[in-house]
């Protein structure tokens, strides 16, 4: 390696930028591991959203080796700025001191004890102090655990069986009632309602007005490709309460991103209780439901129990990262960086004549080519592959700004997007979408 190469590498490290990928993206080790995984693991990996088909198979890495801050390296040695962020769980970036130092310092106390430990109490106290309206909380391990506990609690409190779900709330039967392996009877208990467009708002309110006496709860995961108005959320909450329906926010994704206290703080609204995961421990496996004592205390009546909910390291990390959210400018930074990304890419896309627009919440940028799902998916699969070749990892819809991203990385991403869109335009990808491209 020459002195000039070393100097270039040092400069890239200082600015937090990936080493350039020369020529085609080399994925030999990824492809070898993928072939082995197809033999051993149903669905290749543990999360549907991480399957290689969800990105750009053949032009996108399949396996990562390590991460530091907002940079990751794949098993073939390629480096990228990461906007997948552990599917949104890595709120602070990879290897953040609040996570790794806490684990190092607490590991010698054990991982899971035979009786409750003090950290269950102190972590719960830290959580209810941060979440608006919360007086009690219970911990679980995954977002689907939390939302399933929420459904059971709502049914117990109201004495009603049916629920309304909005957005993705998890893989359990009462959410994914129309997928293989789920008895058809579950359809009778769940109304799944869209909220992707303003036109979806009235049908939702009308459903609650018509069927409210049968409904235990509305479980709302905010859509990512549009910013719902605070006025609509207030009307939705009032409509729920007018019919004795609990208004529950699924903040598995939006929690600790829109505001330190989540969507309740961001919008100035009060949910009956909330579901949390992902950012609650910045990547460690943990989830929770939290809310007022009047509702949450009823959870003690139920068979809602998990051996690993009291796992100590995740709770210790939770307490540490909640302090970061509360005591730093993390929330303001990720919003400002997301705004910079949105404005920069939208400006470049318009100049190129590409239909791409970055929409939604600034901290959770949604890359949208078209409202038509097939057209969007086709363009986005090409785009994420072109971005990977330029050292940037994106999802095919919603991506995430983390606390480790920098302005230099955002600007690098904007220029990479410009290059990718120019490449796509020259290949005729946007013919019939917008006028011709300009480089």
TrEMBL record:
<keyword id="KW-0663">Pyridoxal phosphate</keyword>
<comment type="similarity">
    <text>Belongs to the class-III pyridoxal-phosphate-dependent aminotransferase family.</text>
</comment>
<protein>
    <submittedName>
        <fullName>MxcL</fullName>
    </submittedName>
</protein>
<dbReference type="GO" id="GO:0030170">
    <property type="term" value="F:pyridoxal phosphate binding"/>
</dbReference>
<dbReference type="InterPro" id="IPR005814">
    <property type="entry name" value="Aminotrans_3"/>
</dbReference>
<dbReference type="InterPro" id="IPR015422">
    <property type="entry name" value="PyrdxlP-dep_Trfase_small"/>
</dbReference>
<dbReference type="InterPro" id="IPR015424">
    <property type="entry name" value="PyrdxlP-dep_Trfase"/>
</dbReference>
<dbReference type="Pfam" id="PF00202">
    <property type="entry name" value="Aminotran_3"/>
</dbReference>
<dbReference type="InterPro" id="IPR049704">
    <property type="entry name" value="Aminotrans_3_PPA_site"/>
</dbReference>
<dbReference type="InterPro" id="IPR015421">
    <property type="entry name" value="PyrdxlP-dep_Trfase_major"/>
</dbReference>
<dbReference type="GO" id="GO:0008483">
    <property type="term" value="F:transaminase activity"/>
</dbReference>
